[in-house]
Amino acid sequence: SSSGAGSYAPAASGEGASPSGIPFLRRTFSASQSLPPKCAQVLQDFLYKVDQLRLPSGSARSGFEREYMEVCWSIDKAPWYQAALTPQTKFTNAKNRYRDVLPFEKTRVHLVDADSGPAGDYINANFVDDKYIACCAPIPNVIGDFWHMVWQCNVHVILMLTNFIERERRKADLYWDKAGKVVDFKGVFVQLIGEEDHPASHGFIIRLFKIWTVDRNGSESSSRIIQQLQLTIWPDHGVLRDFRVIAPMLEMVNEYHDQASRSHEVDARTVVHCSAGIGRSGTVIAIDIILNELQRALRTVSSGVDNDDAVAAALDVQRVVHRIRSQRPGMVQTPEQYEMIYQYVAAVVGNRQPW
Questions:
Q1: What is the CATH number assigned to the segment(s) 24-350?
Q2: CA 328, CA 172: separation in Å to the nearest integer?
Q3: What distances in angstroms separate CA 35 from CA 39, 49, 100, one per listed residue?
Q4: What is the CA radius of gyration of the chain?
Q5: Percent of the chain at pLDDT exceeding 90
Q6: Rounded to an integer, what distance in angstroms lies between the CA atom of residue 27 and that of residue 32?
Q7: How far is it, in rounded angstroms, from Cα 289 to Cα 129?
Q8: Are 43 and 32 in contact (CB under 8 A)?
Q9: Cα–chain-centroid distance for residue 354?
């Protein structure tokens, strides 16, 4: 594999610098005895809740499953739900990887310049909290649209949470040229320029793509470097048992996202896709939102502000999953994935298992 991916990795914070996201959380929770009593109590209450949710009730369902079903029913059974989905024609249907995974019309990405023919501006993708775009892995006839979306929507990071084949079924199609040849997707040019395994062998691959457009004379008019991380160890519909891959992956995603936002002076976005773009994608987006909200709340606490309400709100898993599921149908696909969000946050807050 070609090297060079590492040269685009963001520089680590200097010793004197305020640590970004995950290092800040590690530092805070390793010295949690220094947190104000009210804030420490909020964290203890959260860990107690996780322990309580583990227990089955009279129905033999765990609390995680009951809470998950409440979130699902509050949206999926709502009277507005069917009408909120993007109406399908045979042309738009031909661009869906799965017939039963459709976007909400209100939050879907509208393609601007892609030549989509009778399917118009359609792609099966939704904005989630504006920072993320969650989508299906593009099928062959949608690959050009996918790269147009990446270009149009200020995407600088792609997080791919699936393998191409899982359990002998195709889950994703290759949407770049592995040999590094330039591919012209109707005016958006894409080239793989670097690929390497993460140095700590955490189970993800880092790729770099150059993406650019040209002017009327055929000269490059503007370009950017896209960082793609592909996680290869998470089974479809399943959960990650070893949490240690998540922190370095999200740290890399957020560092590159923030660096791109600063250097390009835009609100950069991150595309997150698995196969359907709802299960693994929803789980990771929920975890990232919770960690970012928790970090912001704790920074105000560490600067002397009594902000235990914000810490409690950040730890409200049900609220976050409801919010993202209101923006793309089916986000967080199984009760086990919902529980994984809780267990991961408990690992972070309570150092309960390596993370």
A1: 3.90.190.10
A2: 19
A3: 6, 20, 46
A4: 21
A5: 74
A6: 9
A7: 9
A8: yes
A9: 21
- Checking if the pLDDT of 327 tops 60, the result is yes
The answer to whether residue 34 scores a pLDDT higher than 50 is yes
Q: Say if CB 128 and CB 242 are below 8 A apart.
A: no
Residues 6+ apart with CB under 8 A from 23: 13, 251
Token code pair at residue 197: 């395994």
The Cα–Cα gap between 259 and 177 comes to: 26
Spatial distance between the Cα atoms of 239 and 231, rounded to a whole number of angstroms: 13
Between CA 161 and CA 253 the distance in angstroms is 13
Q: Give residue-wise pLDDT tens across range 240-298.
A: 988 999 999 999 999 999 999 999 999 999 999 999 999 999 999 999 999 999 999 99
- In the residue annotation, 274 being an active-site residue is answered as yes
Q: How many CA atoms lie within 13 A of 33 on its CB side?
A: 0
Domain ranges of the chain: 24-350
CB 348, CB 291: distance < 8 Å:
yes
Maximum separation of any 2 CA atoms in the chain, in Å: 71
- In this structure, what token pair is assigned to residue 136? 């299906």
pLDDT reported for residue 156: 98
The rounded distance, in Å, linking the Cα atoms of 183 and 140 is: 14
Cα 110 to Cα 124: distance, rounded to the nearest angstrom: 10
Tens-place pLDDT, residues 184-218? 999 999 999 999 987 766 789 999 999 999 998 88
Structure tokens at 37: 């009593």
Residue from 135, 136, 153, 274 carrying the catalytic annotation: 274
Specify burial of residue 51 (Cβ count, 10 A radius: 0-12, 13-18, 19+).
Answer: exposed
| Helices and strands (H and E) in the chain: how many | 11, 10
106-118, pLDDT tens digit by residue?
Answer: 999 999 976 667 7
Q: Helix (H, G, I), strand (E, B), or coil: what is residue 311?
A: helix
pTM attached to this predicted model: 0.92
- Which residues are 195's β-sheet partners? 207
Q: Burial level of 313, CB count in 10 A (0-12/13-18/19+)?
A: middle
**20 pLDDT above the threshold of 90:** no
List all residues 6 or more positions away from 1 whose beta carbon is below 8 Å from its beta carbon: 195, 196, 197
